[in-house]
Amino acid sequence: MDSVATTLNTYEQNMRLIGLASDCVFITSSEKEKxxxxxxxxxxxxxxxxxxxxxxxxxxxxxxxIEYLLAFDRHLQIQCNxxxxxxxATANGLASEKEVANALKxxxxxxxxxxxxxxxxxxxxxxxxxxxxxxxxxxLTQNRIKDxxxxxxxxxxxxxxxxxxxxxxRFGVLAIKRELVTIEQVNAALEIxxxxxxxxxxxFIGEILQETADLSYDDILQxxxxxxxxxxxxxxxxxxxxxxxxxxKISKKLNRLFEYSISKDGLGAFVKKRREIEEAIxxxxxxxxxxxxxxxxxxxxxxxxxEFIQKAEKKSQxxxxxxxxxxxxxxxSIQFYFEKENSDPILIKKGSILAKIIPGKEGxxxxxxxxxxxxxxxxxxxxxxxxxxxxxxxHIFFAQIEGRPILKNGITLMVEPVVKKDEIKTIxxxxxxxxxxxxxSAIVELSGGITQEAVLRxxxxxxxxxxxxxxxxxxxxxxxxxxxxxxxxxxxxxxNAAKFS
Length: 501
Hints:
By secondary structure, the protein is α/β, with parallel strands linked by helices. Helix content is 45%, strand content 17%. It has 14 helices and 18 strands.
């Protein structure tokens, strides 16, 4: 019974520490759920495991913060005990409510300043509110209540008189904790009940308190519900402890008969017979052993295991569990619509699709025989920039002009304007108007001149004459004549560069 009580106390402290860590925002809600799950798994092997070990193993909380949590938990527990101490002191007329309240306030302030817990009994004795004898008397009463709490027995509502006696004491403790009755009233009710033992059907303490302490039916019902929950927890814990002990015994036996191994990729688990088996091994024991060594997923059919356990020879081996690999990710790729390696690529029209980025796809996790997910590699991404005369819309690259596509440095897509030899235009005479798009892609050889009001748009210009008007070129300009308008030409070249960038 002591081991059960110890386990319950450890479980309660672990859950308190998890709750405190969450309240103090040391862990997130998802980390809280993960910690509880790990605690439940590890408790099957070690019922006295401390959650602080899990905090450290999972790198969730630093050592300094764990020390803070433990100190804070001790402080809260002492406060709970000291509040009961204060109620007992007040109920027995040994201290006033004001003295108790001030003592609790001083206790809190001292802890906040020094991180040291002072017990309320020491504070009340120190300030003269109670004597040392009063403190001893209250502590004895407090310990008696503590000893009668719900951890003393694990049975359901009892049928024997002994079980009913335990249940009645529990009921009294809960009624006192809820401040529905006093200690004196409970003791008096227990005395009445003791005197009724000789009767054929002695009453439960709740019935007596309903009569002697005006305990309502609703109060009795709530106490019984709370009592039932504690008893169920005790029963479940006892059952869990029995299960763990049984499984440990099975594991020790099967460890002598079998050995296991797991492949490096975690996708296969294998068991080999150490020796000939002279006794019948139930399949459920073999499955318990697999689970306790960690093999939880992808276990083969019972019939296959049964065949191996009963008929396989010594040192023979079987694949007892199979995981499945992850579905790998698809990397991002680029589809080009022209020949990148061609030294003389063909011309493409304005608006043509030059390339398209095909997005990658995330893979799907696999699962190993231990039940853990196997994550696929992340998809890789491609780098492709839109250079001069190229525009990108979404994942598609378009040509802004007619010309030859170029992939510069393997990462930048460009279009280079090209002029064919048969597009050379020879003009004799002067140009005195706006040529618009007439010579836009041509090489113009002009003998004469360009008047002041004229605008010539071309690819390149070779001029024998005076340049007085405006020239907009994408290529070279050669002037053999009056260069008074050199600044105008340079200005035009700048404008042209801006236009085609």
